[in-house]
Amino acid sequence: MPVIEDDLWKHPGNPGMIVVTSHASITEDGRLFMGYGQAQEAIKRIPDIDFQCGSLVQTHAVDGVYGFLPVRPPRPQERIIGFGLFQTQVHWDETADPELIKYSMDCLRQFTQTHSNLRIRMNFPGLGDGGLVADEIAPLLLPLPQTVTICHKGEIQKSYPMSFSGFKTLYLKVEHMLQEGRFNQAVEFLIGNGYDIQSAMDQVRAVQRVLKEGAEKEAKRAQTWQQSQFPASRSTGR
User: Fold this and answer.
1) Cβ contacts of residue 216 below 8 Å, gap of 6+?
2) 72: Cβ–Cβ under 8 A, 6 or more apart, which residues?
3) Distance (Å, rounded) from C-alpha 121 to C-alpha 166?
4) What is the per-residue pLDDT across 80-98, written as a single tens digit (0 to 9) for each?
5) Which of 1, 58, 114, 129 could be bridged to 144 by S-S, CB 3.0 to 4.6 A?
6) Which residues pair with residue 215 across a beta bridge?
7) Where are the domains of the chain?
8) Which residues contact residue 143 at a Cβ distance below 8 angstroms, ignoring those fewer than 6 apart?
């Protein structure tokens, strides 16, 4: 579930799927207009994908809205990666709609629940031509499914608390949330306190690792103590 600065088109793993942000604008010959951004790259890589997308959008869209749309399933045995659309606007030349992004994210979550082994890479929705900023979009993406990686091109600027005391307070709060099993809430908490989404996820995972390592060390200490107090010879009656 990371958010990373990386090339979207790296292989996501098998079975895998590449998802690009899109809209519902259909050309006169039935193609989905894919003349910009990562959608344009899809045309170069996948023959006739604009026709396939256009056909499915016309079939599934209701009043121009379809949310998340799996266009082509992966075929790992043939080394073919799946492809899907994540809707951010109705018309291609509009500013991305936060409510539509939220709806598409809900649809994507539902899809991942029934395709839990599918590894998905998608571009960060709403940035660039979408006209939105990362801080506005980030809360809409949470909770981010474990199998989804969101890629960006450096648009997300790193942001952290300004003081060590502030960081310590946030750390303790995050630690408490993780002990209660509230990973996504911990990420949301850091975003609400000035972190960008990528840094928030990195920090929460770092705290999670520290807690896990601490628990493992404590378990090992307890086992060592128990063995010293109750050696095997006593337990067998010798």
Assistant:
1) none
2) 46, 49, 52, 80, 82, 83, 84
3) 34
4) 999 999 999 999 999 999 9
5) 1
6) none
7) 1-155, 157-228
8) 109, 183, 184, 187
